[in-house]
Design a protein that fits this description.
four-stranded antiparallel beta sheet; 3 helices; 9% helix
Length: 306
Amino acid sequence: MKRQLLLTLAIVMCCGLTFAQPRSASEPKLLVKADVSLMAPVWSPNGDKIAVTSTAYTGVFVANADGSDLKCVTDAAGAGYKMQWSTDSKQILGRTNIVENNRVLHEVKVWSVNNSSARTLIHKTRDLKGTPTWKSIDRVIISDRAGVRTLSLNGNPTATVANAYDIMMNDPVGAMTKIASLKDLGGRLVLNPSLSPDGKKVAFQVYGKGMYVCNIDGSALKSIGLGVYPTWLPDNECVVFNRTTDDGSRLTASQLIAMNVNTGKTVTLVANSDIIPLKSTVSPDGKKIAFENVADEAIYVVNLKY
């Protein structure tokens, strides 16, 4: 009986640790700095590397998880905007910007992290409605005038049934009409969707209305308050986001906050200070959060405890 009780207590304690909200275990520390401004970091799925971009999402750079050995993968304009790692951490998917005759054209490309070689999946076009997403290790989803399609890295495009996350990424303007639960939000633009690690939920912003969370099929829509750039912790219950202050033309302060989307409970991880955190990314093991510091245009990291 005593042994069973101890086992039960151990399980409860473990569960409590698994789903506890994070707290800062360190002050923010400089992770990556370069001769160019750096922003919008994204951890690789295996946690070994981190990708960043520069001003106006120009280029993609990759460093080791400790910030060392920063290398340029591509210098293409727009390539870093909502760039995505492949699940094997070997490739990065992105959408580039090409200006011709005062018009912006887009290409969809996949870059190899090891040797910076590039594969063009969609050549110069004005038809893309958003940014591409990975469907699997060798397939990519896009949305254009032909509809939502899956592109094989080794074959022809096929029609696909997109979930709420794919629609928000690939057609942020049309998401309000294509996702039934969003139709009552007044036709606002969907911003910065983030897919939970288990693939079952999406956290996102609605322009002028704050942050929301819904199931992957668009059901169970729920407002979770004001904030920007939500991203998930590994427990699939908490999101990390920023609450910002500006003077009308530039950011003057920002907090990094974690919230349990089920209870609404929040914990401040980085308070208003000389550091202005934005666009954070959580390491796959949930032990670190990297973010851009708007104040000095470098990438910082804060350790977490639970």
